[in-house]
Amino acid sequence: MDTIASLFSFITTPVSWVIVQFHSVYGAIFGPDTGWAWGLSIVSLVILIRICLIPLFVKQIKATRAMQTLQPEMKKIQERYKNDKQRQSEEMMKLYKETGTNPLSSCLPILAQSPFFFALYHVLNSIASNDTIGVINTSLLESAQKAHIVGAPLAVKFTDSASKVEALGASLTDVRVVTAIMIVLMSASQFFTQRQLMTKNVDTTVKTPFMQQQKMLMYVFPVMFAVFGINFPVGVLVYWLTTNVWTMGQQMYVIHNNPTPGSKAQAAYLERLHKHVTTHGKVSRRRDKVIVKAIVAKGRDRNEFERKFINGLSKAGLAAQTDGTVIKSDTVAAVEAEDGTPTTGTPKRQQPKRQTKAQRQSAAAKAAEESEQKTSLTKSDAPEDAKPAPAAKKGGAKSGSGTRSKAQSGQRKGPQRPKSPSKK
User: Fold this and answer.
1) Of 49, 56, 326, 329, which one's alpha carbon is 20 to 30 angstroms from that of 120?
2) Which of 195, 183, 217 is nearest to 106 (CA)?
3) What is the pLDDT of residues 115-167, one digit of tens each?
4) pTM of the prediction?
5) How many of the other CB atoms lie within 10 Å of CB of 156?
6) CB atoms near residue 116 (< 10 Å)
7) HEC sequence for 215-266
8) Do 180 and 157 touch, CB atoms closer than 8 A?
């Protein structure tokens, strides 16, 4: 570890200077020798570093999503050249070059943060060894050794002996309880962060080896933190726990506002956006416009959640535009032109009112009366020639050759069906 610390000694002085500047501020509030002053100085150092690493974090998100998109193509290359590892590597590099993807970009925040981590470890280790380092002089060294966080000095470890802990004015039991709690919190925050990524922000439509690797890391990282955490000073545990909590909150923000396409987080986001757009009739925030613009540009390549979002806007009488805005469709405009009242959706069918029994009976009687009147008017207006001739007498003369006698009263007109002879 001394060799690694010496490699990062060039950043030890800047890190110690930042801690001392924050300590001067918090020391004026809580007291220079308190754990609050030194602990908050370490927390502020983490926040400052993570703010500076935000551009790298954005690049990491883009690289991770690009790698998720390329997983089907990578799987095809692996299956095609599974017996030729050299050709497989060449095709992989060619794919990365064509798409502009760098697999190492997803590790940039961790790589950029590692020098500060080892520099802080070296500073706290020097405090525990009673050695001055960087801008931390003798008076600051004594102040840092007196600082305790819930009974545990900043520079002690879980594995330190009782004599070393007592030399810093603490008990071994307090130190191990505090460090154990911090290690558990550190591992739990790492597990929750990775689990949140796997359950909410991964494209569920594509099953790739990348997802299996992420699932494995969800269990490996907490175990690594638990194993290495017992060898970290309390101040380093404060640093690592703070950066884990920052990562968890930062990831929650990204998942909530800019989820991965095809993930459960995107379905929840588009549902919230649809509710907002149908209520206000427009897209208000700039980042929402960017996402709507990307969905419109996909066309037929939209996933299930994106198609559901576009169809929901259509049912509400809205249409998403190529610039990310939302306007009312032509159907709604026609409805407004007819009745003159603005609407936010397609008009509903008007159901007829249910009539009472008395109303139905009166309507039926009125309809029967009108039908009878029409029938009587039709008979009275008929011409005389159209009136039927009187019935012929029984046994009368025939009207002419080839003609048939008229049907007698009570018989059906037209040709009669011959009766079958009765059986005796």
Assistant:
1) 56
2) 217
3) 887 888 888 878 877 788 888 888 898 888 888 888 898 888 888 888 888 88
4) 0.67
5) 26
6) 22
7) HHHHHHHHHHHHHHHCCCCHHHHHHHHHHHHHHHHHHHHHHHHCCCCCCHHH
8) no
